[in-house]
Design goal:
- By secondary structure, the chain is an alpha+beta fold.
- It folds into 2 domains: 5-101, Elongation Factor Tu (Ef-tu), domain 3 (Beta Barrel), CATH 2.40.30; 114-214, Nucleotide-binding domain of ferredoxin-NADP reductase (FNR) module (Rossmann fold, 3-Layer(aba) Sandwich), CATH 3.40.50.80.
- 16% of the residues lie in helices and 35% in strands.
- The protein contains 4 helices and 11 strands, in the order ββββαβαββαβαβββ.
- It has a 6-stranded antiparallel beta sheet with strand order 4-3-6-1-2-5.
- The longest helix has 12 residues, at 124-135.
- The radius of gyration is 18 Å and the shape is globular.
- The two termini are 32 Å apart.
- Bound molecules: flavin-adenine dinucleotide (FAD).
- Flavin-adenine dinucleotide binds at residues 41, 53-56, 72-74, 76, 78-83, 102, 121, 124.
């Protein structure tokens, strides 16, 4: 794709966001900074193979200008790339990335309201878009729906809540677990998941929202 290039990068952090989802932070180690639009993705080469896997960039472009980028990776049982990322990848490892790719990105020549819907690791491009807008003072109204199977599959809820408080009236986030039953505990001290058979779920944050059932 036009503009896509190969980058060398080194892992600078690996953090667990949930029981099956990790944040991986990379520092670019050669060439120029990666220039991308929030929402786009990179391809990661699985070492020792010729296999690439696509991952949406979860951090805003400003971080890439500082030669840093973040990916959010959910473990797929038996998966080649996610098995490597979750079981072997460590701080200090060198990797190869190509990118940026994708036509799903923030159109900055518009001031229209944004409704962002992401499920599980599909939240990664939404995080890039929303943090990018937040860096600009949230010039557009944004509502984020974060779909997840259960409360324990949600992450960054408090970060989005903080943005909601900071940009009151412009930013709203709605965590939307499909089921509140399979949780290890409430998302927030003092709140408890409620049993519900409808598509409307307790969010663990005192709000309710509609959520599509998982396939
Ligand atoms: C544009 C784009 C952006 C993406 N962004 C992200 C991202 O930000 N975070 C992220 O975690 N993933 C993302 N993915 C998915 C990612 O590219 C891989 O497909 C995924 O991580 C599995 O790779 P793997 O090598 O571990 O599994 P593979 O070895 O390719 O597959 C192992 C087995 O699992 C099945 N499988 C593959 N993926 C899934 C899945 N998601 N659910 C259930 N079964 C599956 C396969 O059919 C196969 O049977 C994105 C994909 C695309 C196309």
């Amino acid at each position: 794709m036009l503009g896509a290039r190969e980058f060398d990068a080194r892992v600078t952090a690996v953090e667990s966001l949930t029981y099956d989802t990790k944040l991986v932070r990379f520092g670019l180690t050669n060439g120029s900074a990666l220039s991308f639009k929030p929402g786009q993705y990179v391809q990661l080469l699985v070492p020792g193979t010729d296999q690439f896997r696509a991952y949406s960039i979860a951090s805003p472009p400003s971080r890439a200008q500082a030669r840093e980028l973040e990916l959010i990776v959910r473990y797929v049982p038996g998966g080649l790339c996610t098995g490597w990322i979750h079981k072997a990848l460590a701080v200090g490892d060198d990797v190869k990335l190509t990118g940026p790719f994708g036509d799903f990105y923030l159109r900055e020549d518009s001031n229209r309201e944004i409704i962002a819907i992401g499920g599980g690791s599909g939240m990664a491009p939404m995080r890039s878009i929303i943090t990018h807008l937040a860096e600009q003072g949230m010039p557009r109204k944004v509502t984020l729906f974060f779909g997840a199977r259960t409360l324990r599959d949600l992450f960054y809820v408090e970060d989005f809540r903080a943005l909601e408080r900071k940009f009151r009236g412009s930013g709203t986030s709605r965590p939307c677990p499909s089921r509140g039953l399979r949780t290890t505990g409430p998302a927030r001290p003092g709140s408890s998941p409620r049993r519900s058979r409808s598509t409307s779920s307790q969010t663990g944050t005192g709000r309710r929202c509609s959520a599509a059932r998982p396939q």
